[in-house]
Design a protein that fits this description.
about 20% strand; seven-stranded mixed β-sheet; alpha/beta; six-stranded mixed β-sheet; about 625 residues
Length: about 625
């Protein structure tokens, strides 16, 4: 499509990565572009890529911060290789060039390519080689000098104006993607409402970037208009997985009638769950920032004993610290939701990078026989529904539930259609009835095996529970046979949860030659890889697990149907090992990645084709 001398290309999707030094505002630029895209009808998925260092040396690769946005008509993941890359300094170009598609457009702040900056980034010669110029469209924009000039004309301090460089880059991107500036201008006016000069500066720099692109003939043949998404009518917002998790817990509190309590300690990348809940005191949320992880979960157990929908949020290192208290919650049989936003490990590991390496810890990381429910979210948006489900299972089955998300889901974002709480499945906590003459602390429902929840102050239901073994009537005992019985009962209660969850589904080509198995946050890339392979004439089936412990009842039937199975996960094979213990008769291959990065569709397809060709 031609518009004057400009060619506008129609595309189903587009992947853009903003990259720069920490403090260059790449996260904000990416978020603003995501929001503008969503409001113009695009489906979106994002992937913030933070440096692990708090403040790495300026202009070094260790300090590069990135934000990837995938926009289009139907988006599964944040995308593989990029159509457009913004590089605000030499280090961001050097570290992100590997993500560029052949022929991609690369926008650089040419003012930052000084000899010292290029040396710090590891360049020994001209970074813009003839080979590079031939492979990509390089837009050398004088971003810093343009921004400084605008700031000087407005009488703004140089250090203040430098912080607006990201708006220039965003303006260029808005022009290339054929989008208007209205939404972002409105955001800037709201964000800095009390700082008129800052609003005017950022809006002026944004407009300057847009007009710079308009005047640059090199860009005129690279303008892209991305197809809009067809979505059900409703109210939507761009939401991160951590915020969606917090909202799911709030919804479960309202639906169950139980007050929400979160006892937590800040830890990357889970902190935003706590931050979001702390904003909603008006909805009855009580948030306690504890002095450490142990205090966080212990406060939540106390709140659960008192009748709250009790939660604690953490990541892998914090989950290990909570393990003893988790055993107490299992022993006392109290409802508790533990949100584990996984990151690279072990130990402090890769705090800002994603991984799926906490599964073994969630399944087995407690002393004694301490079974509990484990579920996993599979997209940033459905963190809402899996947080809600985790709370429902905890309250109705009187047991701790670990909800596993990860840094990719928690920090990433998607479009989320906001539901009505009244339309969500009902939650019926297992509350005891006052003055029940037959009440016993561990009297069980004959179907679910869950005990009743007697709250302090309930008339006629005084009782004691704690970490020491007890008999079903409540008194302490070390009787060997009773201990064996109680161990069996606690395990059986978790096993019977399988009767209350849906069967596992198979998508793709159910009669395929290969079954791809995934769990948790890898869903987007796996779904797209399987879909593309089937479109290419291959026969590939796919099943993705959200219910981990217990597994859906038909899991064995599915696995036994296929001669070739590959389990894909961002660890060294923890889910594959778990499935082998349950179904040793089923041969399973593994495809694993432990790099702190999500799967790419291309690498998955290459692995699947290799297995099919064996």
């Amino acid at each position: 499509m031609m518009q004057g001398d400009k060619k506008v290309t129609q595309k189903d999707d587009l992947v853009i990565r903003f990259a720069g030094d920490s403090g260059d505002g790449m996260q904000l630029s990416g978020t603003l572009f995501s929001d503008a895209s969503a409001l113009t009808g695009n489906d979106i998925a994002t992937f913030p890529d933070y440096p692990a260092e708090i403040r790495a040396p300026h202009n070094t690769i260790a300090g590069v911060s990135g934000f990837q946005v995938h926009v289009g008509s139907h988006i599964y993941s944040s995308g593989d290789k990029c159509d457009i890359i913004v590089a605000m300094n030499p280090a961001s170009l050097k570290s992100n060039l590997k993500w560029a598609k052949k022929g991609a457009t690369i926008i650089v702040d040419i003012d930052t390519f000084t000899d010292s900056a290029m040396e710090k980034a590891g360049y020994t010669g001209d970074p813009f080689s003839e080979e590079l110029e031939h492979a990509y469209t390089i837009v050398k924009a004088p971003i810093s000098s343009f921004t400084e000039r605008i700031g000087s004309e407005m009488g703004v301090d140089k250090k203040v104006s430098e912080k607006s460089r990201n708006m220039f880059a965003l303006g260029v991107i808005f022009y290339i993607t054929h989008k208007k500036l209205d939404q972002t201008n409105a955001y800037l006016a709201r964000k800095f409402a009390k700082k008129t000069q800052v609003v005017q500066l950022n809006q002026a720099v944004l407009r300057e970037g847009y007009e710079f692109a308009d005047k640059l003939e090199l860009i005129h043949s690279h303008i892209v208009e991305v197809a809009t998404a067809k979505m059900p009518k409703g109210r939507y917002r761009n939401i991160t997985g951590n915020v969606a998790t917090a909202w799911g817990l709030l919804a479960a509190s309202e639906r169950s009638g139980r007050p929400l309590f979160l006892g937590s300690y800040p830890i990357t990348p889970a902190t935003d769950v706590m931050v979001e809940l702390a904003k909603h005191k008006a909805l009855g949320a009580k948030v306690f920032q504890a002095e450490d992880e142990i205090a966080g979960i212990c406060s939540a157990i106390g709140a659960s004993y008192a009748g709250a929908l009790a939660c604690t949020s953490t990541s892998g290192p914090g989950l290990s610290l909570k393990s003893e208290a988790l055993g107490l919650a299992v022993m006392v049989e109290l409802p508790l939701v533990v949100v584990d936003v996984q990151r690279g490990g072990p130990s402090t590991g890769l705090p800002t990078k994603t991984e799926q390496s906490d599964l073994n810890q969630a399944l087995y990381g407690r002393n004694g026989e301490a079974p509990l429910i484990v579920v996993a979210a599979s997209s940033s948006a459905n963190c809402f529904y899996w947080a809600y489900t985790a709370a429902k299972l905890a309250l109705e089955h009187m047991t701790p539930v670990i909800l596993m998300t990860d840094g990719y889901l928690g920090n990433g974002s998607q479009l989320f259609r906001i539901p009505k709480v009244a339309d969500l499945p009902g939650i019926t906590p297992r509350l005891a009835k006052p003055n029940d003459p037959n009440y016993r602390p561990f009297r069980r429902d004959p179907v679910s095996f869950a005990r009743e929840w007697a709250l302090p102050g309930m008339e006629g239901l005084r009782h004691r529970v704690g970490g020491l073994e007890k008999c079903p009537d409540g008194p302490l005992t070390t009787d060997p046979e009773n201990h064996a019985l109680m161990v069996y009962n606690r395990q059986e209660k978790v096993n019977r949860v399988a009767n209350y969850i849906p069967d596992q589904e198979v998508t793709g080509n159910p009669d395929g030659d290969l079954l791809v198995v995934g769990w948790g946050g890898t869903s987007g890339a796996l779904t797209l890889a399987v879909e593309e392979m089937n479109n290419e004439g291959k026969k590939v089936a796919y099943t993705h697990f959200n219910y981990i412990c217990p597994l859906p009842k038909n899991t064995g039937d599915i696995l036994r149907k296929y001669k070739k199975i590959v389990v894909c996960e961002l660890n060294n094979g923890q889910f594959a090992g778990y499935l082998r213990t349950q179904f040793p008769e089923c041969p399973m291959r593994q495809y694993n990645k432990v790099m702190g990065l999500p799967f790419e569709v291309g690498e998955l397809k290459e692995a699947f084709n290799k297995i099919l060709g064996e």
